[in-house]
Structures are given as C-alpha cells and as structure tokens.
Amino acid sequence: MVTHPYDQQLQSNNNNNNNNGRRHSSHNEITLQQTMGNSTICVFLDLCGAYNSVNISKLTHKLTEIGTPPYIALWIGSFFINKHYFDGIHSAVGNRGLDQGSTISPLLFNIYTSHIGGLLGECKMSGFADDFSIRAHGRDMVLEASKLQRELDHLTFQFEEIDLQINPNKSKFMVFLPNRSRPSVIPILHIGQERIQLVESHKYLGLTFDKDGNWNKHIENVVNASSQDVTAMKFLKGSNWGNNPKTQLILYKAVCRPKMEYASTIYLWKNDPALKKLQVIQNKALRHALGAVRTTPVNSLHAASAVLPIRHRVDEISLKTTNKYCSTSPTISAQYHEMSCLPSRGRQEKIKQEIQFEGREQYDIIS
C-alpha cells in the first residue's frame, strides 16, 4: 500500500529510477548512436547540497499529490522536521533536508524530483537520486549543443522551483564520437553565467565513462581499489595467527569482490584483458585466504575455496540480470523470446533490424 503510489509515479516519468537500468540505458544509447555514425553530448549534473536542500513542506505536498495516504505523508514530514543533532558537545535543530545515509532518503529524493525533465523535447534525461545526466544525439555538434543549452536553461528553472541548484563547477560534460574520431568543433555549454567543463572521463552512478568507450579508466580504478583491499587482507592473517581462512573468504566476498562485480555486465562485456587483470587479483586474494603458495594451481584455489573464476562469475551475474529484465519488462521479454527462437544467422539479421528501428525510435534495451 505504501509503495504502490511511489512506483506508479516513478514509472510514469521519463526517469528510470533504477541504478543498474540507468547505467545500461546510457551506455546502450551512446553505443547505438556511435554505430549509426552519430555523436553524443552528455552533461552530468551535480546539485549543490542535494539532500540538505530538500524542502520538507514541498516534499509532503508531493507525496500527497501522488496518492500517498495522508497519515504516511504527515508522518514522513514530522520525521524530518525538528530533528535534533548532538555530537557530544554541540547540539542543533534542523527543519530542512533529508538525512544522509538513510535508506529512505534516495526514494524520497526520487519522488521529490520525479517531475524534473518531464517536458524535455529532443534531449533525453536519466537519473537516480541526486545523479542526473542529459544527452543529445546527432551529426551536427553545434545544433545538438544548442538543444542541450535550451534544455539546461529549462532544467535550471525547474530545479530552482523546488529549492535545488545546479553546481556549474562540479557539473561536467563529455562528447562521444563515432569511430574515435576528432570533433570538428568544441561545444560550449553554460549553467547560468558559468561555463561547464569538458572532460575526457567522468564517474556517473559508480561507473567511470571515458570518451573512447573502452572503460580503461574504470578498469584502472577497480584494479587499484581491489588491489588495496587484497593487500589489506595480508595484515589480518599470518601463518599461525589471525583470521580463519573461512573468515578471510567471507571478507573477500563481502568487501573485495563486489567492487569488481559492480556494473560488470557493462564494462567486462567481451573484455578479456580486463577479465585477466581481475582474475589475477582474485588469485592473490584466494592465496592469502587459504595460505597457499604461488605455485598452487589456480584450479585448486577455486576448488578449495568454492569461489567461481571471474569469467564464470560474470556470466552468472549476466544471466541473473537478463532473467530480471525479462521478468520485469514485457518489451524486453518479447524481444528476447522472439530472437531465441531464431537460428544463429536469422538472429543476427533480427538484431540489425532492431538496431535500425530503435535508431528512429527510442533505444532502451539491455544488451
């Protein structure tokens, strides 16, 4: 009863407030446009103190508008009003904003901003919580930049209506070109009087996009973070002291491996070099956990630890993701079953037809 009006409201607007779906959609859309020979200008918006700037009165009114039971809307409003903060020495009372780190804050922020971007014209917008991106596609960079600028001016006004402001210093934009070509012109975009910086890579929803679309920057970040975690595991266990091997394996699965698996269905897709790099890190982690030596066969490490190799683990996650979208999206389910009934050659022709059709319409299918 509580979630029904939320789901109805969030599904009715252009923002697909699903973290994994947004990453897939943005990546697939950019890849499709590159395949068709089009360029993509993507602006990543940053909000000033997003959660702290939420107007609780307007949030309560928004909840009532979408059909939330009045007593629940009033309870949420009273929960975030007259909040008392105490750090042991100082105390303060707050009547504005959502709590950072609260499990309900992202959902409430999604509802609070669900109408943003609903009237966009030829540009497309996506977002989850306080992360937003707006994109324009085409062959004429000057024309697409002018479209984006008009929509940015409109979005700035929409955010200001709900007491939110776009931070031009932290907002960035990227240009994705087909076949790694060089741009004929460098587009210029502004938020108010401030110019938005053009960058070659940017982190959006935990995934680092780079202009070449090869995910090298993201892979580098994942390898560095995972290597540091594996190194830290060395200090938790010795030859005759420290954690039990089972505890070390639980630690690896809970802390280290999720960093490699996050968005793995996107950046590890047909990326053998990246898979090999991550497999080396996992091998080191298993050796530390089991107390094995460097000459221990890799197959033995995985058999003794009951941990799947990275490649097989990614395949498992990909199948789970496919099943999830097939069960939640009638469109994707119908396309998947239609192509699964075709022979291999016919399946390739069907995919080409779908790409050509979706290029004229809206492309939002999971690869």
TrEMBL record:
Its domain of life? Eukaryota
- What residues does the Reverse transcriptase domain cover? 1-209
Supply the SUPFAM superfamilies for this chain.
Answer: DNA/RNA polymerases (SSF56672)
> Could you tell me which residues belong to the region Disordered?
1-25
| Biased amino acid composition, Polar residues | 1-12
Q: Which InterPro entries match?
A: DNA/RNA_pol_sf, RT_dom
What is the name of the protein in this document? Reverse transcriptase domain-containing protein
